[in-house]
Design brief:
By secondary structure, this protein is mostly helical. The protein folds into 2 domains: 53 residues, Arc Repressor Mutant, subunit A (Orthogonal Bundle), CATH 1.10.10; 130 residues, Tetracycline Repressor, domain 2, CATH 1.10.357. The chain contains 9 helices and no strands. The longest helix has 26 residues.
Length: 193
């Protein structure tokens, strides 16, 4: 029972720290955030912070690594051919759900003080998975054309994500995935549906 209590306490503490950190990052760059300020906002003491993180950059790194792992799991079906019931909407739904589950970090990453390197790392990861998967589905299409498609589609999806975030993510991840796919497959004709 004690381990469960400690695990729960650790999860709650890390959640409080993450929430305080992302709230601060909305208004100021990371280099302007002090541990003292973060701890006050999270309602914890400095010792508690240092029990989990070396510094503010380690905190950001751990949060980003967690989100990257979740996104990798969402993208895994793209290259996992064992799942024959795979549909683009299902994959995209998982991706949008991951983004919704990490909406605090998405808001910050896409904002003025976000970690642009992290954002680019996520886009490159998606690009590689998509190019690999689409090359198998569209064997006659050159990898360069697939890269162009990914650049166009990912920029559009980032625009959708920004709007979805600003609307409070009231639409479900599945609705957003279906709309993204409709736009990619039908273009402006999707507005007639």
């Amino acid at each position: 029972m004690k381990k469960f209590t400690n695990d729960h306490r650790t999860r709650v503490t890390k959640m409080l720290i993450r929430k305080a950190f992302t709230q601060l990052l909305v208004n100021k760059p990371i280099q302007s955030i002090s541990i003292k300020e973060l701890c006050e906002k999270a309602g914890i003491n400095r010792g508690t912070f240092y029990a989990h993180y070396k510094d503010i950059y380690d905190l950001r790194s751990q949060i980003e690594d967690e989100m990257q792992k979740e996104l990798e799991a969402a993208l895994k079906p793209l290259t996992d051919q064992a799942d024959k019931g795979l549909t683009p909407v299902r994959i995209t739904t998982e991706i949008f759900q991951c983004l919704k589950d990490n909406s605090d970090l998405c808001t910050v990453t896409l904002g003025e003080y976000g970690d642009k390197d992290f954002f680019l790392r996520l886009l490159r990861m998606g690009q590689q998975k998509c190019v690999d998967a689409y090359s198998k589905y569209f064997e006659t299409v050159s990898p360069k054309k697939i890269e162009y498609f990914y650049a166009f589609a990912s920029s559009g999806c980032v625009g959708l994500l920004r709007l979805w975030l600003s609307d409070g993510m009231t639409a479900s991840a599945e609705e957003m995935a279906q709309f993204a796919e409709d736009i990619m497959m039908k273009g402006i004709a999707c507005l007639k549906s």
